Amino acid sequence: MSLKAIVLLSGGLDSSVAAAIAKSRGYDIHALTIDYEQRHGREHRAAKDVAKALGAVEHKVLKIDLSQFGGSALTDARIEVPRSRSKKAIGHDIPATYVPARNTVFLSVALAWAEAIDAEAIFIGAHALDYSGYPDCRPEFLEAFQNVSALGTKRGVEGKPVKIEAPLVHMSKREIIERGRELGVPFELTWSCYLGGEKACGTCDSCILRLEAFKEAGREDPIEYERR
Amino acid sequence: MSLKAIVLLSGGLDSSVAAAIAKSRGYDIHALTIDYEQRHGREHRAAKDVAKALGAVEHKVLKIDLSQFGGSALTDARIEVPRSRSKKAIGHDIPATYVPARNTVFLSVALAWAEAIDAEAIFIGAHALDYSGYPDCRPEFLEAFQNVSALGTKRGVEGKPVKIEAPLVHMSKREIIERGRELGVPFELTWSCYLGGEKACGTCDSCILRLEAFKEAGREDPIEYERR
């Protein structure tokens, strides 16, 4: 019997590489996309295409309307998405695009699904090296959540807690691209831009980090940009 | 300026008493009900009425369709809700009504809202003494989640993590009723039954524990039952 993993798949570069790593480790992929009423709903199409390309067993989209709570440029139209910042400025503090407790919410619903289908692991594309601005991408947060998985679930009580796997956590963005290339990740299907346009904007933090990473890896980013 | 608390309010006895305790400690109540497509949607009406009666500043209902995942008698119509069990049998193991990772999901979205409105605390009506069947009602789970709050949020990074308050955790069901009575909780508005009828069934685990607790407290349960 094959092992099952829930893969949190946004359709971005990182989660797509995390999915490919899960697959390379022999897991069947049960892809989970959270529709939290973010600006960049465009991502969902990418998630669907990537899940298919990587041979996911199934792909669910779960709606959780975090825009009801506000507090982030990604869910509240009144807060502007920062543009054209330097890489150094981006990593400096917690940005306006931080969505309160997002990875906690994502991991918790992934945990619910994992318990229901008896999956061994959850894969998340969090990484802390290039972009330390988000508290919920740090290894110490992921360890704390592992503890929640051990203590707050039936599988945990039975001594086989769902493992929280964050294979990118210590990788640079350049390394993520290289690993993705080795594993045949279809970069042309992925989507990272925080805005919801037909082409990626090229100026939000997410586009800037992505373009920089492809440049460092000496590769061409295959998606289209408004500006680059 | 008054302190804000997110109160996870299902409309049941426990969460209503937890809400009254939050109020007695001087917090403004921001009530949060999670509609997870459970059988007993009847609870939501109770939550709305209790929130109003306790003077909540606001009350939000957030939809998260956990029935997409299944795995529980409360969200999957194919799994039966156990009936007419003894109190001893009820506390013995993890029952079919366990919803995978439910309190983790509830606390995580409460944490998202708490961060967005700068609330100091989250109140949850979990208690472990009479009913140890649910792993995510135990003090060690709640402590693990406190750690997630400290490490995975902006408030945590700033040294003022959102506090997870579970004031009932060491109380018996009888003590919960007594505390609720002292605080003027409108028991007649609360709803505990796992089924969705117009009257409480009187035979599901939740009804049995509630009736037993009122009996032990020497009080009359003011709600109507099919059987008691």
Could you explain the architecture of this structure?
Two copies of one chain form a homodimer. With 228 residues, chain A is of the alpha/beta class. Chain A has a single domain (3-216), classed as HUPs (Rossmann fold, 3-Layer(aba) Sandwich), CATH 3.40.50. Chain A is built from eight helices and five strands; from the N terminus they run E-H-E-H-E-H-H-E-H-H-E-H-H. Chain A has helices at 13-24, 43-53, 87-90, 102-117, 139-151, 154-157, 173-182, 205-216, and strands at residues 3-8, 27-35, 58-63, 121-123, 163-165. A five-stranded parallel sheet of chain A has the order 3-2-1-4-5, with helices on both faces. In chain A, helix 2 links the parallel strand 2 and strand 3. The mean pLDDT of chain A is 91. At the A-B interface, strand 3, helix 4, helix 5 and helix 6 of A face strand 3, helix 4, helix 5 and helix 6 of B.
Topology:
The structure is a homodimer of 228-residue chains.
Chain A (H helix, E strand, L loop, with lengths): L2 E6 L4 H12 L2 E9 L7 H11 L4 E6 L23 H4 L11 H16 L3 E3 L15 H13 L2 H4 L5 E3 L7 H10 L22 H12 L12
Parallel strand pairs in A: 1-2, 1-4, 2-3, 4-5
Helix pairs in contact in A: 1-7
